Each structure stands twice: as C-alpha cells, then as structure tokens.
Amino acid sequence: MARTSHRFPRSLPRGRTGRAALGATVAGGLLSAAATAPERVSQFFRRRYPTVAVTGMTGVGKSQLADRLAGRSPGSTTADVGSAVMERRTRRTSGLHGFRFLVVPGDNAATRLGALDEVFHDEPVDGVLHVVANGYATARRAAGTTGAGSATREQQLAAELEDFAITAHRVASMAVRRDKPVWLVIAVSKVDLYPDDIDAAVHYYSPGSGSPFGAKLDELRALAGGARLSVDVLPVSSQGGDRNAAVSAKRSAVLVDALAVRLAQLSGHV
Ligand SMILES: Nc1nc2c(ncn2[C@@H]2O[C@H](COP(=O)(O)OP(=O)(O)O)[C@@H](O)[C@H]2O)c(=O)[nH]1
Ligand SMILES: [Mg+2]
Q1: Global pTM?
Q2: Do both 84 and 161 map to the same domain?
Q3: What is the pLDDT of residues 135-179, one digit of tens each?
Q4: Backbone dihedral angles phi then psi of residue 202, each to the nearest 5 degrees
Q5: What is the pLDDT of residues 185-225, one digit of tens each?
Q6: What is the domain extent for residue 39?
Q7: Ligand 1: does its nearest atom lie under 6 Å from the Cβ of 68?
Q8: CATH of the domain at 261
Q9: Cα 206 to the center of its chain, rounded Å
Q10: Cβ–ligand 1 contact at 105 (below 6 Å)
Q11: Given ligand 1 and candidates 160, 238, 248, 252, which is best to mutate, with the most ligand atoms within 8 Å of its CB?
Q12: 66 alpha carbon to ligand 1 midpoint, in Å?
C-alpha cells in the first residue's frame, strides 16, 4: 500500500509543486471523484498498478504476449497485427498486484515516436518488457506492396538490433532522469519455433555475451549506469499446444507465468 501510494505522484507533472502538494491534489481529486463518478474511482485504482512498456519491432509477438500476460486468449482482440496505435492491456489480480501494459507500435511511424515519448518521457513507465524473436519476427509486407515478406533470419536479427538501439536510447535517458532503478526484461519469444536453440538464443540476448545484442545491452548499462538498470532475459512462447507445436499448452503457460512472476518481483509485488 505505502509503496504504491508513494509512487503515484510520479504520473503527475513534476517540478512546479512539491510532492506533498501533489499528494494533497491527488487526495482531493479522489474525494471529488468518489462523490461524482464511481467509475473514475476504479480508474484511479487501476492507475496504481505498475506500468510496463512492451517494446520490440513489428511481428515479434508483443500483442499476443501482452494478451497472455493480461489473461486474454490471443485472438480475442481485434487489434491488427502490426498495429500502429498503442495497445493497452491490464493484468488484474486479487489485491493490487496487477500490471498495466502499454504496447508500443513496432513500425517506425509517427505514432511510434509519440508512443515512445509517452511511455519513456511524459508518463515514464515502471519497467520495460522488450520482446525479441530470435530472427523469427513475422515479416509483413509494406503497405501497397505485394508478395510475401522475404526477410532472412539474418536480416530479421539485424532489424531487431536496430530496433533495440532506438528503444535502448530511450530507456537510458529515462534511467538517468530517475531516482530509482529501472528494470528491463528481454522476452525471447516464439521459442516454440526453435525449441532446441533456446539456451543459445537466451545467451545471444544477454549482457556480457559478446554477441551484437549483448554489446548493445552492455552499452546501455554503461550509459544508464549499471546500478540504475537491471536486465533480465527470459524465454517465452505465447503459443503452444497446436498439433505440430514444439511447445505444449502447459509449457507455454509455465513460461508466461514465470515471466509474470519475474515482473511481479521486479515491481516489488512479492
Ligand atoms: N509460433 C509463434 N508465433 C507467435 C508467437 N507469438 C506471436 N506469434 C505470431 O507472430 C505474429 C505477430 O504477433 P503479434 O503479437 O501480432 O506481434 P507484434 O507485431 O509484435 O504485436 C502473429 O502471427 C502471431 O500469431 C509465439 O510465441 N509463437
Ligand atoms: Mg502488435
């Protein structure tokens, strides 16, 4: 309780007034909301869930993973694959141990820049879940072109790296502005597509691994200051149990749950 109420003022504009004054504003706002509109009260409580930016390039599986983490069955959403608008998902739990996920569009459209500003600057999130797919991002055709997307795995890995460089820069500047550590979880997704190479993939995406991605992470930690940024790397599959799937539905659920547990630990829930 104390923890969540303490962090609440962060989502309000800072700098002009002190924290005590902001606290009073919040309390007053709550009371007047309670008197007028009950639905706004529930909105107030939802806002106290830690917020998590879900980043990563288009086609890596951000939306499906956010759906799973929020307890929705994938496909229950109407969002387009490669959505250009920020998707919002809430993981509700008993007590206040839920999360709010903000899925940043992966395509480099103007909407993406706005979304990045929102989650890393305007209303900085508590943590970042960066999704990668070991080169298995679903290739999408650019609007107006025909034919199947034909990027090779090498090209996809290069694209993931380039995409991460943009996000990493935003994470670094958020970390240096902030008075408490920022956490970053790399979700190595779609492991059902490379079941025998999961360890190698996790290694590739880990700090200190000597890989191109590892080098980017090392750079980010140096820039942010090591103590200000924690990095976790966890494998996950949002899919499983289909007839030819290499990962069972149960195994997929175990991986998604392990990721959720780690997010909860990093948020101080447990
Ligand atoms: N095999 C497999 N496919 C996945 C997984 N997660 C997502 N996908 C597929 O990858 C594509 C992109 O997923 P989506 O969540 O829309 O990616 P986003 O663009 O990052 O939001 C879709 O066709 C999904 O069905 C996964 O864990 N395993
Ligand atoms: Mg999406």
Answers
A1: 0.81
A2: yes
A3: 999 976 555 555 555 789 999 999 999 999 999 999 999 999 998
A4: -60, -40
A5: 999 999 999 999 999 999 999 999 999 999 999 999 999 98
A6: 1-48
A7: no
A8: 3.40.50.300
A9: 17
A10: no
A11: 238
A12: 11
